[in-house]
Specification:
Order of helices and strands of chain A: EEEHEEHEHHHEHEHEEH
Oligomer: heterodimer
Distance between the termini of chain B: 34 Å
Shape of chain B: globular
Largest sheet of chain B: 2 strands, antiparallel
CATH class of chain B: Mainly Alpha
Order of helices and strands of chain B: HHHHEEHHHHHHHH
Helix content of chain B: over 70%
Mean pLDDT of chain A: 90
CATH topology of chain B: ABC transporter involved in vitamin B12 uptake, BtuC
Number of helices of chain B: 12
CATH superfamily of chain A: P-loop containing nucleotide triphosphate hydrolases
Low-confidence stretches of chain A: none
CATH architecture of chain B: Orthogonal Bundle
Shape of chain A: globular
Structural class of chain B: mainly alpha
CATH class of chain A: Alpha Beta
Number of domains of chain A: 1
Radius of gyration of chain A: 17 Å
Mean pLDDT of chain B: 90
Low-confidence stretches of chain B: 292-298
Distance between the termini of chain A: 11 Å
Helix content of chain A: 25-40%
Strand content of chain A: 25-35%
Strand content of chain B: under 5%
Strand order of the largest sheet of chain B: 1-2
Number of domains of chain B: 1
Largest interface: A-B, 29 and 21 residues
Structural class of chain A: alpha/beta
Number of helices of chain A: 8
Largest sheet of chain A: 6 strands, mixed
CATH architecture of chain A: 3-Layer(aba) Sandwich
Chain lengths: 240, 298
């Protein structure tokens, strides 16, 4: 049984059906990369898993427990943490205050402010700075650190490299490799296909709210994923 | 002149106290509570009722009234304000306007139109004063009110900046959706904020009743003073509220020296000047008016 399972999930934004009957699962400790063009429904799917969007049909299961109807703040307490697209930091608060907010759900675990600052040493001198004054890389590190502070079982990462210089992205991915090695279950939305395939165990490509490709990241070719990305791929029946 | 300035500063403490809850509710929940003044008068009546009926002195009565106000804040947020806020920004304003009418008329029906005061129940404190050099008389009650205002604002500032619950309330005020994604229960944070706001309203109502008279319709002018102090200080800024209260009171006190009607006119004039300047800076938007972007703390 998958540690995190999504079953026939449908999410609407008004009249628009952003996610259309999506089903997949992630094993504990594995990393799933979610790729697709803009508007494919990746962010909506991730936010629905985190509880920020309520699905109109389908369900999300964590370790067999149905999360349908569970509000986002309680899902954090159950072990799901989202690093949202655009970071969404509390810009009037300091780095430390943002990190401490991540502990609100009160899940026991090893993560602390000091441990996050060890993972992202560039944040150390900025500990008391308002996050609105940070660079993009520092903001992204704070956003990831804030999610880690809840000691999550499942970490949802939405476009962590968006708007960052390649050098900063490299640093962020070094940190992510550490998390992956530590056994955290990760669902990663990423536009950079090479990075997505290099860090993940499984890749899912979405197009217009549907899954058009599910494959093992190590065996699938970049060309195959690119075709699926642009809707040129003939969908395979791959078990979730 | 120095006497007027001292009296103005002390009166500013009362205005800060009554503006504190209004400013706090706006900064956290984005609700302009038009029932604010009426709720303060309700608290004053509750204390008066306890004092006249059960001989409970007003300061002791606060031990009953403040928890009651806290409970009212929780219930109001959960069952009225939260629901009306889902209908857009205008609906909570109309809702609290209606609530003010209900409270005013309920008090009128229960207590009649007679003016009341808590002064008879606090002994000589209502008129006792210290004489300072230069024939300056400083009222003891006014000093107590000012110290209470500073302590309350300082305590709230510490609570918001140093505690997990305070951080949760600030996070909710900044971005309620994202606060949920980090584990903050925005509904609970808002309800706690409303509870805190109503406790400050209860305190303001107590001091209103001790320093002056009140009647069932005394809420409207209190709301006006609170609103003026909050706007002058920049709603959402706790220390700004104290500054706003002092500036308003100084304008009123100095205005009274110029003309018999100058007390109210002086305050309104300063309010209008600050309002115009703030509107100009904020591009004539209400959100920018009440919540200047330059503020650094709630």
């Amino acid at each position: 049984m998958s540690f995190l399972a999504v079953e026939d999930l449908v999410v609407r934004h008004g009249l628009l059906q952003a996610v259309r009957g999506v089903t997949f699962g992630v094993e504990r400790g594995k990393t799933l990369a979610l790729v697709g063009a803009n508007g494919a429904g990746k962010t909506t799917l991730l936010r629905a898993i985190a509880g920020a969007h309520q699905p109109s049909a389908g369900r999300v299961l964590l370790n067999g427990a149905d999360l349908t109807g569970v509000p986002s703040h309680r899902r954090v307490g159950m072990g799901i943490a989202l690093v949202p697209e655009g970071r969404k930091l509390f810009v009037r608060m300091s780095v430390e205050e943002n990190l401490l907010l991540g502990r609100t759900a009160g899940r026991p675990g090893d993560w602390s402010v000091d441990k996050v600052l060890e993972m992202f040493p560039n944040l150390k001198p900025r500990r008391h700075a308002k996050t609105g004054h940070l660079s993009g890389g520092e903001q992204q590190a704070t956003a990831i650190g804030r999610a880690l502070m809840s000691n999550p079982d499942v970490l949802l990462l939405d476009e962590v490299s968006l708007g960052l210089s390649p050098l900063i992205v490299d640093r962020v991915y070094v940190a992510l490799q550490g998390l992956i090695s530590s056994g955290t279950t990760i669902i990663l939305v990423e536009q950079d296909l090479n990075r997505a395939l290099s860090v993940s165990d499984k890749v899912i490509c979405m197009l217009e709210g549907r899954i058009v490709l599910t494959a093992d990241s190590r065996s699938v070719s970049r060309d195959e994923v690119t075709k699926a990305y642009f809707g040129l791929h003939k969908q395979k029946a791959v078990p979730a | 002149m120095s006497n007027q300035i001292i009296q103005g500063v002390l009166l500013g403490g009362y205005y800060a106290l009554i503006a504190c809850g209004l400013s706090f509710m706006f900064s956290v929940m984005r609700i302009i509570n038009l029932a604010h003044g009426s709720l303060a008068v309700f608290a004053a009546y509750a204390l008066w009722w306890l004092a006249s009926r059960f001989h409970i002195p007003p300061f002791a009565g606060l031990l009953i009234v403040l928890p009651l106000m806290a409970a009212i804040g929780w219930v109001l947020q959960r069952f009225l304000l939260e629901r009306s806020a889902r209908g857009g920004a205008l609906l909570p304003i109309l809702t609290t306007f209606g609530l003010a009418i209900v409270i005013d008329n309920m008090l009128f029906e229960q207590f009649g139109a007679d003016t009341r005061s808590l002064a008879p129940f606090i002994g000589s404190l209502s008129y006792d004063s210290w004489e300072w050099p230069g024939s300056i008389y400083v009222g003891k009650l006014a000093v107590i009110i000012f110290i209470t205002a500073v302590a309350l604002l300082g305590g709230l500032q510490l609570f918001l900046s140093r505690t997990g619950l305070g951080r949760a309330i600030r996070a909710t005020s900044e971005d309620p959706d994202t606060s949920g994604l980090v584990g903050v229960d925005a509904r609970r944070a808002n309800a706690i904020a409303a509870t805190i706001a109503m406790v400050t309203v209860g305190l303001a109502g107590a001091f209103l009743g001790m320093r002056a008279t009140f009647d069932p319709y005394a809420g409207a002018p209190q709301l006006l003073f609170a609103f003026e102090a909050a706007v002058i200080g920049g709603a959402g800024s706790l220390w700004g509220t104290l500054v706003g209260g002092i500036v308003l009171a100084l304008a009123q006190t100095l205005g009274a020296q110029v003309h018999p009607q100058g007390f109210l006119i002086g305050g309104h004039a300063v309010f209008l000047i600050v309002l115009f300047v703030r509107l100009s800076v904020s591009g004539f938007s209400l959100r920018g008016l009440l919540n200047p972007p330059s503020r650094s703390a709630p």
